[in-house]
Design brief:
Length: 165
């Protein structure tokens, strides 16, 4: 071993310095491990957990996105069906409204016609009364003229009274 030390000594190796360097290395390694590497390890573990959680969240978000797309399609389909139903109901309601309006217009027209016929009938009766009255007056006057020429005045008054009654 002595020869090995001599050979190493000849090339500039000092075992005392090497031992001191080894002790310094171990002390520095222990200090780094105790204070810095442990914190770095904790930070790396936290970072790893954060990344893993981010990946899980991204996968979950992707699954939720797919579900949301399917839900959107379902909602759109339901909305289209509901819109069609509303349109059909509005169309039916419009037809009913038109039909009701036509019936109301027909009723109103019948009422107007009935009122007009009643007015015409009343005017016809009034006209008949007026014609009858005028005819009676004309007959009385005609009879008076005929009687004046052939009958005396006393007879004339009696006939006139009988005719006017």
């Amino acid at each position: 071993m002595q020869t090995l030390l001599n050979i190493l000594g000849n090339i500039g190796f000092d075992w005392k310095v090497a031992l001191a360097n080894l002790v310094n290395f171990l002390v520095i390694f222990w200090l780094l491990n105790k204070f810095i590497f442990s914190k770095i390890r904790v930070a790396l573990d936290n970072r790893k957990k954060t990344i893993e959680q981010g990946v899980l969240d991204a996968e979950e978000a992707g699954a939720q996105l797919v579900m949301a797309e399917e839900k959107k399609k379902g909602i759109l389909s339901d909305a289209r069906m509901e819109a069609n139903m509303v349109f059909d109901e509005a169309h039916k309601k419009a037809k009913r409204t038109i039909k009701d309006s036509v019936l109301d217009a027909e009723k109103e027209a019948k009422k107007v016609m009935t009122d007009a016929e009643n007015k015409i009938e009343m005017r016809r009766k009034e006209t008949e009364k007026e014609i009858q009255k005028q005819t009676t007056q004309m007959v009385v006057e005609s009879v008076k003229k005929v009687l004046e020429s052939e009958v005396d005045s006393a007879m004339q008054e009696r006939i006139t009274k009988q005719i006017t009654l």
